[in-house]
Amino acid sequence: MFAPLKFIRHAASVVTLTSACFALAQRVDVPLNPGSWISHAEFASTKPSSPSFEVREGFPQGLVQLSEGSIQLQNFDFASGTIDFDMKVTGDGLPGIRFRMQGERGAENSEEFYLRPSVDCRASDDCVQYAPIINGFMLWNVFPEYQTQAPVYDGWNHFKLVISGRRMNLYVNHFPEPVLKVGKLESSSSHGTIGLVGPAQFANLTIRAGQVDGLLSSVAPDRSDNDRSIVHHWELGSSTPFHLGKPPAFSDVPSQAWKPVSSERFGFVNLNRLYSAQEVSPELTWLRFSVWSEKSQTKTMSLGWIGQAWIFVNGSFLTTKKNFYYPEAERQPPDGRYSLENGTVQLVLKPGRNIVTFAVYDSIRNTGGDRTRYGWGVGASFRDTAGLRF
Question: Is there a contact between 277 and 245 (Cβ–Cβ < 8 Å)?
């Protein structure tokens, strides 16, 4: 249980936050003062943020300025309801809010909404985005379906998040319809505290726990669930060292300790659920799946992947593919994000069982450096499944 936390409500009375008042969907005005928040460094190699709190006329709850990093609300637990806040961007970065935060840095689980501030934001299809944080990885590059245009302006903007179980709707600047609908919140945490991420000023943060405006709590249907062209069943092998400039050979494939894993939404094999974002030496992650063919034939396999993947078929090297956000020349459509349309390869299949093996570099930096804290994984599908069985 989290200890009770006192809040100022309409700057006139004090409300003690408990699970009982959550159940009543009571409005809670969250104070923006140094006694209610703690500072965090985004990564182990960076310093904690230095927030600046102030009280100003017209802002009875206070204001907070975050030039970098993030802060976390103390002694607070939120599951479902409505979160309203005002935000004014004050620098280059990805400012926003996190909720259902649990765990320590490097193994954190939470949900995040953020803004990509730019002069073209209103017209950009990535102006606002939802991304889960899973085991310390922030999966901004996995779900291009959860980013969109938004009616944002210079200066202050108002955001409302309606969160119900596994779903979320985002409203911007009091427009009556949500600009973004998230059919499945992907983090493994179902409740937790709130965090703010700079660079931005924040004000008027209010929470109505339990108020979901009729939004269903169940997961929205995924069109890929019953898609027989997608490879849903994979095996994961143990990791092996990665040496930049030295491609893996089939002799490096682990001989033991393979375990079954399944693809998730949009056919993605989500490796972020299987590891934590700790600083480790560069590694290769091995995945494979089996496809049975009725005869000798060649099939087109569509691929989704992030980072670099080396592909082997029945023990023979087929090709290597890159999908790095930087350098720009190595971004695959859509703009370096995961998609089952990132690329294609031709598979020459023999009658009976065929084994397709992937070695995946566990970073989205083309440098051979430590594991980066972003999304990584693969997906595969076949345009023509005649004569095939997975």
Answer: no
Task: State mean pLDDT over 91-109.
Answer: 89
Gyration radius (Cα) of the chain, Å: 23
Phi-psi region of 121 (alpha: psi -120 to 50; beta: other; left: phi over 0): alpha
> What number of CA atoms fall less than 13 Å from residue 26's CA on the CB side?
17
Question: What does the block give as tokens for 136?
Answer: 């310390």
Rounded Cα distance between 164 and 159, Å, is: 16
From CA 115, how far away is CA 117, in angstroms rounded? 6
Residues in a beta bridge with 6: 16
Q: Is the peptide bond before 221 cis (omega within 30 degrees of 0)?
A: no
CA-CA-CA-CA torsion sign (133, 134, 137, 140): negative
Query: Distance between CA atoms of 69 and 39, rounded to whole angstroms?
Result: 8
How far is residue 191's CA from residue 99's CA, in Å, rounded to a whole number? 8
Q: How far does CA 189 lie from the centroid of its chain? A: 13
Query: Within 10 Å of residue 78's Cβ, how many Cβ atoms?
Result: 21
pLDDT interval class at 100 (50, 70, 90) = very high
What's the pLDDT band for 53 if we cut at 50, 70, 90? very high
- Give CA–CA dist 361/363, Å, rounded: 6
What is the SS3 assignment for the chain? CCCCEEEEECCCEEEEECHHHHHCCCEEECCCCCCCEEEECCCCCCCCCCCEEEEECCEEEEEEEECCCEEEECCCCECCEEEEEEEEECCCCCCEEEEEEECCCCCCEEEEEEECCCCCHHHCCCCEEEEEEECCEECCCCCHHHEECCCCCCCEEEEEEEEECCEEEEEECCCCCCCEEECCCCCCCCCEEEEEECCEEEEEEEEEECCCCCCCCCCCCCCCCCCCCECCEEEECCCEECECCECCCHHHCCCCCCEEEECCHHHCEEHHHCCCCCCCCCEEEEEEEEEEECCCEEEEEEEEECEEEEEEECCEEEEEEEECCECHHHCCCCCCCCCCCCEEEEEEECCEEEEEEEEEECCCECCCCCCCCECCEEEEEECCCCCEEC
- The whole-number pLDDT of residue 4 equals 35
